Amino acid sequence: MMKQFFSFVALIAFTLVLAPSCQKDHDGKPDTPDIPGELHPVPTEGVVDLGLSVLWLDHNVGAVKPSDIGSYFQWAGVLDVSDLGIYLYYDNCPYHNHDITEEEGWLKYCDVASYGNVDNLTVLEPMDDAAYMTPDASKWCQRMPSYEEMEELIRNCTWTLTTIDNVQGYKVQSNIEGYTDKWIFLPSAGHRAFNELYNDGNTTLYWTSTLVTGNPSRAIALSCWRNPDINEDFIYLHPDIRYFGLPVRPVIEVKKDGK
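and the corresponding structure tokens:
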């Protein structure tokens, strides 16, 4: 039986995120949205409607099919850090003053003075969102899921550990009436830290766009893993270190039923 845990809920205040418009500048890169909520046509392939508040892409950023691992990103970073030759730590973490100690020196996304420059930003801005900045987003509005959207996915779907194309991961199937035949696959890609890849094939980790308030050296991530001793799956949200490299699964916000 699957157990679902929502860690640190009492300690973390989460901010709802508005869907960014997908305005582009002349070189084809996403520009900072100037018309919040403007929505563009959604692709007919590669997107799954699970009956939730957002649509989910069926593949990770950097992947070409659902079973591909794709790319790894540090939180608030838009560069693929899959290469094990890239040493991941605070001294190359986005928006960290590398001359300051690990838990201090944050230049952006910080709500505690002892951690750095307080700007009270708790949700990734478009230019720092790996899903928004990928070329895949050139014709529609895709971004990282928020804490609330990832929690919604956990709460309203059945999670089954399975293997597709020899890749282990979780089949996430909707429990919403009218959508129970819809599902996505989240490969168990593990995470990158230092110059290592950890738990590849055993642990499923994905970033959300939400900072951990009160501890801005961390951001909220999805974690899924099976305890083989008791044959139970643990699916929950937890704070993860911003310099870790995790996969990203985009969502697309659309208006439904004319709303």
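(Above: one complete record from the training split.) Confidence is low (pLDDT under 50) at residues 1-38.
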